[in-house]
Amino acid sequence: MNKYCYALIFTIFSFSKYAVNAQVAKTVFLPKCGIPTRWASQVDVEHPLPDYPRPQMQRDNWINLNGLWDYAITNERNVLPDIYSGKILVPFPIESSLSGVRKGLTRSQILWYKRNVKISGIKSDERLLLHFGAVDYKATIYVNGKLIGTHEGGYTSFSLDISHVVKRGDNEIVVKVYDPTDDGINPHGKQSLNPGNIYYTASSGIWQTVWLERVPSSYVSDVTIASDIDSGYVKINVATVDCLGKGDSIKISCSDGTSAIGALKGDMKLLIKSPHLWTPDDPFLYDLNISLIRNNKVIDVVNSYFGMRKISVKKDSTGVDRIFLNNKYVYNLGVLDQGFWPDGLYTAPTDDALKFDIAICKKMGFNTIRKHIKIESDRWYYHADKLGVIVWQDFVNPNVKLLPSAKKAFEDQVEETIKQLYNHPCITTWVLFNEKWGQYDQQRLTRWVKEKDPSRLVNGHSGELLYVNNQLRSPAPDAYIDADLTDIHSYPYPRNAPSLDGKARVLGEYGGIGVSVDGHKWNDLETGWGYDGTISPSAMLSQYEDMMDSIIILERDGLSASIYTQPFDVESEQNGLISYDRQVAKVPLEKLQAINNRILNRISSIGATHENIIIDVMDTTVVSYNVRMDEFKNGRNDSVFLRRLTVEANKRSQLDEVQLIANRYLKGLKNPFAEENLRFITKFTKNVNDTGFSILYNNVNRVNAILGPDEAEACITACIENSEIKPYIDEQKHPEWDEIKKRISRFGPLGKETLLQAQVFYSINLKDYNLFSEVASEWYNTYGKNRKWVTDFLINTMSWYLFLDCKDTSALTIAIAWIQKVVERSPSPDNYDTYANLLYKTGEKDKAIEIQEIAVKLHTGDGNISELITHLEKMKKGEPTWDN
C-alpha cells in the first residue's frame, strides 16, 4: 500500500457517509413534492385509487379500503403498538410524498398500519375476503387482535378469509410490515436504502390497493385462461372453494355469443369462430362471464376478459429466426420502463397516470415495453391489454449480496408472478435475469419457467453480454442455454446479439442518452447522468436518429427487438425521453414517432382520450455559464438564479466560484430548515468558515430530524477535516497530532470524532500500525459503529488493506473483530474472503480454511471466483496469501 491509498480511503469514506438519503415525516399531511406529476393534485385523500383493482376477476360486491390509516414505526418486535404516530395515505409507500409521511425504514424497524372498518355482519352463506394488491415485504395481518395470516413477497397479491373473526359494527385491521429493502433476502428490484446512480428510493409497506370482498360460502377463487389461435379455442380453468361437485357446475359465456357449461374440475374450452386476434395495432379483447351454478341457481359471478394471441420464435422467409406474433413477424420496438413516480414512488398517483405511461410510449411510436425489475398492479397490465402494447416482464432479481439464502424468496416470487399475470395477453416474454444480478442455476430456472408457462417466450438472461462504449464487460459463453432469445446490452450505441439456431436475436437495452431538464429534476443539486454524459436536446434527437439508423441495419442482419433506455427520467438518472414528472418531452414526440415508424412501417395510434394530453417540449434556449457569471458579478442575487448557478459551477469544477456563489445564496436564505435547502447546505458546505457550517453545527438534532440520522454530523466532520486537518498533514512525515487536537478542540465531541477517524485512515495509508492500534478501537466503538457512513463496504476495504500490509498482531486482531461483525450482517463471498485471510495471517489456519470454503460456496458468478479458490489452495498448502 502506498501514499496514494490515503486519498482512496478518504474518498470511500466521504462517498459512504453522503450516500445516506433517509427521508423523514412532515407535520402537514400530503407534503409538497419537489417535482409532482400533474396527477398529484387529483389524488382524493378519502378515496385514492378507487377503481376495482383486479379487472380479470371482477365482482360487484366490494369495498375499497384505500385512504387514511393510522401508522407507527417501532423497533423490531412482535408487540402491537399502543400509540400510533399519525396518518398515512394508503396505498402510497411510506417513503413517498403522497403517503403524507415521507419517512424511510431501517432494516431493524417495523411499520404498523391500523384502521377501523364498519361491517354490517356476515350471513351464514357468505364469506368476507381481505385482499392486498402488494405489501413490501413481509406482511402480518391481525383482525380484531387475532393473527389472520402472513405473506412474504413485496410484488404479488394475497387474500385472507376473515369471516371467522369479524363482527357486526366496528372491526380493527392491523398490518405489520417488515421491509429491509436491499439489506434482506427479499427481492427488492431497484430499491435501495442508500439511493443513487441506478438505484432509487425504497417503497416500503402497502403500495397497492387494499379491499374487502363479500363472496358466497362457495365461490370462484381463480381463473386461468389460455388461447390457441391455431385451433381457435380458448381454454379456461376455474378454481373454486368449498364446492362439493354434486349439483355444482360452471357456466362460461363469451362476448362473441359462445358459451359452455361444465364440471368443476378440468379445463373447459370455447371455440371462437374466426377469432379476432390481439395485436398492438388492434388490441381486441373478448369479455368473459363466469358463473358458479348450484342446483340451477347462480351463486357466484366473476367477470373477466381475454385476448386471442400467440407468441413464438420461427424462421422468416430467409431462414432467420424471428419473434412472431400471431404467426407473423413483428419487430419489438420497446422502451425500458422502471415504473417509478416522483410523488408516489412505486405507486402511480391515479389510474389515469398509470394509463398515461403506456399511452405516451405508444404515442412516441413504440410497440413494446420492457417492465424492468418491478411487478406492477393488475390495472397496469389491464391498460396494456386495452391500449395494445407488447410487454416483456422482468422477474424481480434475488439479492446478490445474500445468495444462496435469497434463492427461495426469489423462486417463490417468480412462481407467484407467473400465476398472477398469466392471463394478460400483453405479456409475451418473461425475463429471468438481468446483467448477472443474482444470477444462479440459469438453465434449471429457464426450463422451470417454461414448464410453468409454455405459452410465452423466456429470456433466460437479458444483458449477460454487456457492452459499454464498445467494451465487453461480462463475457458469458453459456448465457443463452435453453432460452428463446439471445440478448445483449450495449450502451450507448446498439449492436446485435449472437446468432444461435432456434433463438431470436434481441438488444435488451441500449441508449441512455442524458439530457438534464432544470426545474424538473428529482434533485436540483445534481446534474444527473446518462451513458454519454448529459447533452443538449438537439444532440439527443440527432443521436437517437443515428441509433435508429443502426437499428434498421441490425434488423436486416437478424435483430428482432430493441429496448431503449428509457421513457422517463428516474431520480438521479436524467436519461429519459421525458422528464421524471412527466411534464416535459426532451424532443418533440411526433419526431420520435416518425423516426420509430421507419422500422415499424406503421402509424402508432392510441385512444382519443390520450391524444389530447398536452406535454411540454423542452426549451432549448441556452444561456452560457460565462454570461450568467457576468450577471452574478454585476450583482444579480435572486435565489433561483444563485442556486442554479452554484450547481452549474460545481458541474464545471469551479470550486472557488462554487463556494462564493453558495455562500451568497445561503446568506439570503429565509428558511434554511426546508428540506431542499438543508440538502443544498450539506452539499455545498465544505469548510468551517462557510455560511452553512454554523447552521448545521448549531442545529444538529433539528437537521437530522429532517434529513435523517447522522446527516448533520457527516457534513460537520467533513468540514472540520477539510479546514483543520488536511491542510496540516504532510503525507511524508508524521503529523503533529497534538497541535491538530488543540486546534479542533473548540468543536467538542465532533472535533474529537473527526480527529480519531482521520488518525485511523491516516495510519492505514502510511502503515503506522502503532497509531492504528492506539486509536482504532476507540474510534469504532465510540463513533464508527453507530454512523451510517461507516458501511460494511468501508470496513471490508480497511480490513483488506490491513491484511495486505500489516504484520502487527494487535492491529490485525482489531480488523478481525470488525470483519466478523460485517460477515454476520452481510455474509457475502468478499466479506468471508477478507475474514478468512485475516484469520490465516494471524495463525488460525483451520478456522481460516473453514471460512474460505464458505466464501467459495457462496460465490454465484459475480466477481472473481478464481481468486477465492487460489486463496483456499494456498491456505491448505500453508503458503502466504499475501505478498511477502
Notable characteristics:
884 residues; alpha/beta; Serine Threonine Protein Phosphatase 5, Tetratricopeptide repeat; Jelly Rolls; 5 domains; 6-stranded antiparallel beta sheet; 23 helices; GH2_Domain-Containing; hydrolase; glycosidase; Glycoside hydrolase family 2 sugar binding
Describe this structure in words.
The chain is of the alpha/beta class. The chain folds into 5 domains: 5-19 and 677-877, Serine Threonine Protein Phosphatase 5, Tetratricopeptide repeat; 40-50 and 67-208, Sandwich (Jelly Rolls), CATH 2.60.120; 219-228 and 230-306, Immunoglobulin-like, CATH 2.60.40; 312-617, Alpha-Beta Barrel (TIM Barrel); 623-668, no CATH class. The protein is globular and about 95 Å long. Residues 1-29 and 604-611 have low confidence and may be disordered. Residues 1-19 form the signal peptide. InterPro entries: Beta-gal/glucu_dom_sf, Beta-mannosidase-like_N2, Galactose-bd-like_sf, GH, GH2_Domain-Containing, Glyco_hydro_2_cat, Ig-like_fold, Ig-like_GH2.
Task: Write a brief structural summary.
The protein is of the alpha/beta class. Helices cover 32% and strands 23% of the residues.
Stretches where pLDDT falls below 50 for ≥5 residues? 1-29, 604-611
Helix content: 25-40%
CATH H level of the largest domain: which superfamily? Glycosidases
User: What's the alpha carbon Rg, rounded to whole Å?
Assistant: 29 Å
What is the 3D form?
globular
The CATH topology label of the largest domain is TIM Barrel
Q: Tell me the span between the first and last alpha carbons.
A: 12 Å
Global mean pLDDT: 89
The total beta strand count reads 36
Tell me the fraction of residues in β-strands, as a range: 15-25%
Decide which structural class fits the backbone: alpha/beta
Output the number of helix runs. 23
The main sheet comes to: 10 strands, mixed
* Domains, number: 5
Strand order of the largest sheet: 29-28-27-26-25-34-33-32-30-31
Pfam families: Glyco_hydro_2, Glyco_hydro_2_C, Glyco_hydro_2_N2
Protein name: Glycoside hydrolase family 2 sugar binding
Domain Glycoside hydrolase family 2 catalytic: 323-463
Keywords: Glycosidase, Hydrolase, Signal
